[in-house]
Amino acid sequence: QVQLVESGGGLLQAGGSLRLSCAASGRTFSTDTMGWFRQAPGKERELVARITWNLGTWYTESVKGRFTISRDNAKKTVYLQMNSLKPEDTAVYYCAANVGGNGYSAWGQGTQVTVSS
Asked: Going along the chain, which residue ranges are E strands?
């Protein structure tokens, strides 16, 4: 079983930057695809970015060119660097692990990101 803890959220103005971190503990981490999701009030949770064990990445269209997902397997940590933030990026951000390719079954508690205009 893997446990995930996010950190790095906060309140900032549009145009600013934040780096979210997600620390994993428990079972092995290096072979899991890791994802960052977000959920804004009144909206469904959406996948923002994901990174595979061999560093393949994918981004949802609205964050391409602004967000960067990365991972440090030695530290069992995945990051989400968010630049040029917009008010529409305001949401609770969650990291999740796709354990064994069977879907995102492990979730962190979430961290709030609020971007003011």
From this structure: 2-7, 10-13, 18-26, 33-39, 46-51, 57-59, 67-72, 77-82, 91-98, 104-107, 111-116
Q: What pLDDT is recorded for position 90?
A: 98
Name beta bridge partners: 54: none
DSSP 66: T
Tokens of 83: 């630049």
Q: What six digits make up the tokens of 43?
A: 């909206």
Residue 96's contacts (CB-CB under 8 Å, 6 or more residues apart) are 4, 34, 35, 36, 37, 104, 105, 106, 107, 108
Span 22-43, pLDDT tens digits: 999 987 778 889 999 999 999 9
d(CA 60, CA 11): 22
pLDDT score of 101: 82
Q: What does DSSP assign to residue 82? A: E
Q: Fill in the amino acid letter for 34.
A: M
